[in-house]
Amino acid sequence: MKRNFYQFIVILSLLFSQITNAQTVKVAGTILDSETKQPLAGASVVVKGNLSGTISNATGNFGININTPASLVISLVGYEKQEVKINNNSSITVSLKTASEQLDQVVISASRVEENILRSPVSIEKMDIRGVQQTPSANYYDGLVNMKSVDMVTSSLTYKQINTRGFNSTGNSRFLQLVDGVDNQPSGLGFAMGNLFGPHDIDVESVELIPGAASALYGPVAFNGMLYTRTKNPFDYQGLSIQTKFGVNHINDGTGLGAKPVYDMAIRYAKSFNNRLAFKLNASYLTGTDWYANNYTDIDPNTPAANRGPNNPGRNAVNIYGDEVAQTLPNIGRVSRTGYEEKDLATYGVYSLKLNGAIHYRITDKIEAIYQGNFNQGTAQYTGSNRFVINDFKFIQHRLEVKGSNFYVRAYSNQELSTNSYNSRALGQLINRLWVKDLNGNTVAPNVADATWFQRYAAAFNGTISGVTLKDPTAARAFADQGRILPGTAEFDADKEQLIKTRGLGGAGILSKCSLRHVEGMYDLSSLLHVFSLQVGGNYRKYNLDTGGTLLDDLNKKLTNDEFGMFAQASKSLFKDMLKLTVSGRYDKNQNFDGRFTPRASAVFSPGENHHFRASYQTGFRNPTISDQYIKLNVGPIIILGGVPVNSVGLNAYENSFTSASVSAFASAFAAQVQQGTPFPQAVANNKDKLVKSNVPYIKSEKVKSYEVGYKGIVGKKLLIDVNYYFSEYTDFIINTVVIRPTANVLLPDGKINPDAAAEILNGKTQAFQLYTNAADKVSIQGVSTGLTYSLPKNYRVSANATWIDFNLRDANANNIPAFNTPTWKTNLTLSNARLTEKLGFSVAWHWQNAFDWYGTFTELRPGRISAYSLLDAQVSYRVPSLKTTVKLGASNLTNHYVVQAFGSPSVGGLYYVSLNFDQLFR
């Protein structure tokens, strides 16, 4: 297969190589600053339409061989791009103007081809290299929160998740993240871990963000939007760059543990040889103490709100684990086990190691081949159905690509290796089952530990234990807790380590060695057609699943999943380029689901050079994640079962089961009649018709249709205005439902309820299943986002944006709809000046959002309030040009107001840092 792939690359190279008889001229030139007349080093000089180019040296000079006639494109960060036509002239001087703000940037991801951001057919945001360098946040990824429509959730110091346009979550499988075209999601997790496994700032060139459905061009994961990050090409960004950053967090966090250091170090080296071969190497390491999840609010659903609190015997605190195990004891009431605080179970020493290397070879002036390899390893906390420690998680990527000016072919692989990750909540519960003693003082087996603990509590509370005060819940708990393994002891640490190493129901460990292989390509036929622009492309992806049977049904068997997609996009400019129409469509097929066609249509009307009105119709879909499809986990009282047919063969759960609600109604009515003296068979016969056969469909894709109108324009060459309104309808949301399966057929041949199946419910001859399926309910959202960017005199820049979003449940059952988890209002305000003086610059960013209720599986979908909050980030930088060095002093959350962004996740305070950047030394 590899040999065939390499042969394919060689054939492509031959196909796209062009032979020319044009005259070759060597051009020498000098690049100057138009104001200071000083030479500019590091300016990029590229032959228009080709990949070939060079860069200016320390004296601003360059030399390049070109085939005339041609045009050279000269660009440098912070300056306006300039195009120079070359005929027979062999010497040129180019003066570049300083660009205080590039309001009409070029973007690629909106249509997969280069276009002016003003004429993009859909909403799109961009952070260029200057934005990356000048962000006041701790890193570029954190700085994305200042873009329109973006919601950000912090689960860990090393893990932040972003989302757009609602239905937010801490593990977002509805949002696509690409880095140099490579999907950045570990396939077993089913979502990208923020930037834990992404590029470091030192190698980021630009970031583009599309809010809303992008499935028509990018497939099923781009359901809520897409983030596309581009790293620096070693031909364009050469030399040695070093960044060292020291920070402090946990200042005045209320724990008394004191401030903690944060270190972030990165190095990059790139070199080009003869403008044909280039390479780059990156290494970075971040380490620090994670934010603490220390919300001890009692949320026990079986205790009236007025009686909850630290003295509630049935207390269930948000970030204490083990106290979820509770019983209602006769004549006593609700009692929970004594749990362990998260800080005693989690791994708060987090880190992120990133190693990256790439080799670029220009086969011809128009074709470039690239190999890139990434090794990532890190630790982070993740708030899902439980709090998980993604511990020493390894993520390995390989990318091989051949690209030209009008095509690319890309193949890549993602491999995850998780052997030390674990479930913090399960860990607390399991430790609690290792030390419980019976009334004779003997340690009992873990499988009876919980029941024995409650027996001890009841005996002490009821006064049958000598020396324990009668009806004293504190004294009863102390007696039941005798022998409890205490945090900080050698015994606790040894048991904790052993349980982390143990996987499956008997331990807290998580194993995943899943991977994916992906190949894709695109060809731009526009230069051949002339009448209209046309791009076509497609991809194939294969998942290889391996959890050792701890999560999926893959023990001693090979479990795979295949999917492919094809797309085409056509565009045409009419009426002297005043109207641009674009139509695109994509067909995707996963082996487990019907094929999906997702169209997109847009129109951009441009009455003037700087005024552009757009309207679009977009569609999107999301295939169930690998876990949604294949999970098969027996957790004792219930089996969690993924929703594809092959996953439930032989279990008869979808085909032969009762709804959980009808089983409860039947059991209650039966019990009432038996209590009144009705014989067992008669009570069954009288109430069996209360049972309802379940009709749970196998899982399928979620769907969205979206309509959008907007305007983007520049007024007076200084003010950029961007406003849009959208309306979206969603259906077929993926949900879970519980069914009860008897061994007998639930229906008789005549379609009536089988009495034998009803009797089995009462005799306990049943199995409960949590099935993955879809809800037919339809909901909608609408929203408006507005942004203003103004370039002031003397290089000042101010930008402001606001987003309003409204969720309409319509007639849907709220239990069938994923949590919206999105504030109605959020605003951002940024003031910056990168050249306050020749050496001094600054940037200040303020973010605010209103309060809302967060629903998550961590709290069993019970709401937790997220208070309104604001964040202030700021940085001031000082450049030393002679040393190519920048010193930056900054702070994220400058006011150090501790905020929680998702209920159950940690409190996030200020991070204060100083960094030293050495950029492109030895260039």
TrEMBL record:
Pfam families: CarbopepD_reg_2 (PF13715), Plug (PF07715), TonB_dep_Rec_b-barrel (PF00593). Its main location: membrane. Transmembrane segments: none annotated. Residues 119-225 form the TonB-dependent receptor plug domain. One of its GO terms (cellular component) is cell outer membrane. GO terms for molecular function: siderophore uptake transmembrane transporter activity. Residues 1-22 form the signal peptide. One of its GO terms (biological process) is siderophore transmembrane transport. Residues 374-894 form the TonB-dependent receptor-like beta-barrel domain. Keywords: Cell outer membrane, Membrane, Receptor, Signal, TonB box, Transmembrane, Transmembrane beta strand, Transport. It is a multi-pass membrane protein. It comes from the Bacteria. InterPro entries: Beta-barrel_TonB (IPR000531), Beta-barrel_TonB_sf (IPR036942), CarboxyPept-like_regulatory (IPR008969), Plug_dom (IPR012910), Plug_dom_sf (IPR037066), TonB-dep_rcpt-like (IPR039426). It is found in: Cell outer membrane. Belongs to the TonB-dependent receptor family. This is TonB-dependent receptor. It comes from Dyadobacter frigoris.
